[in-house]
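Pasting as-is:
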Amino acid sequence: MGSSEAFTPVVEMEADTGHPPPLERFVFTGSGSEYFRIWIVNLLLTILTLGIYSAWAKVRRTRYFYDSTRLANSSFDYHGNPIAILKGRLVAVAFIFAYNLAFNVSMTLGFTLMGVLVLLSPWLLWKSMQFKLYNSSYRGIRFGFRGTAGRAYLALLLFPLLALFSLFLAAPLAHQRLKQFQHGESRFGATHFSFHGTVGNFYKVYLIGLLIAITGVIIFGALLAMTLTGGYKSGAITPFSKAFYGMIAIFYICINAWMFLLFPIFLTMIQNLIWNKTRLGEHQFQSEMKWGRMAFIMITNIIGVVLTLGLFMPFAQIRSMKYRIESMSLLPASSLDNFIADTQAITSATGEGMADMLDFDLSL
């Protein structure tokens, strides 16, 4: 995410005065017009190169978002290598091609390869997390990921399978274990993040979302039933058309209820839950997203994308990103400058042992 200039720490005196350091808000400086130019060039070059440029497009896009995200007057940096990313994408394309070809050869071979891909996916995602965090930095200090392959298989395979076979009754548990793995195993320099969200916290959010969805479907379904019943009694519609149009209308209502009501509420509650339960050492994060604002952004984004035949997409991405980032704050337990200076010194003394890390990004 940003500047590569050398940073000279300035030691402030908040701790000596007995007053807590001020809250540091995240700021997003990106604009739709700037990002549109990046987006359209990335799109055209990716098409002209038959997808090869997509690795460079990802680096360019990610660097823009990182550089536009600021905390305490400093931006973030992204150091990803497009050649390394291209290697990972070529590997992924080869797997997808082999998977599709295998079913044309024999069902047994196809299902065997499917099983191999399922077993390999947690390892690939684990390496992708390492790549992404190691290639991210703030004030010259790299992030990192210490999670092991064993824990990756628990969080990325075992618990998702448990959610699937429990008819998604265990989905909140799987979600909590995933975030515990992602956040709890990340670090900034030598300082580790920690995640304190409980399984009960996630079940509460999922239950609220489910109740909202059920209530919305019941209300809209009741209104639809009254409308159709009235039309049928007046002879305006036949029994067949009543059933046909009724099914279409119910499906349409469910989709829109999810998109325009439930999803913004769920997204807001989940982001607030995850970041309000995340710490960096002794420093606390805070998220204050409001579902009404998120719903407004999502609805107007969809309208803009439809009316412009997709050209509003980069503006929509910037609007959503800006709101989500600027809803975030860091509550320092002590001076952030002192913390950065200490972390910088510890990191320089310790060194970075990344010899066992693959040098390519396997995420798509």
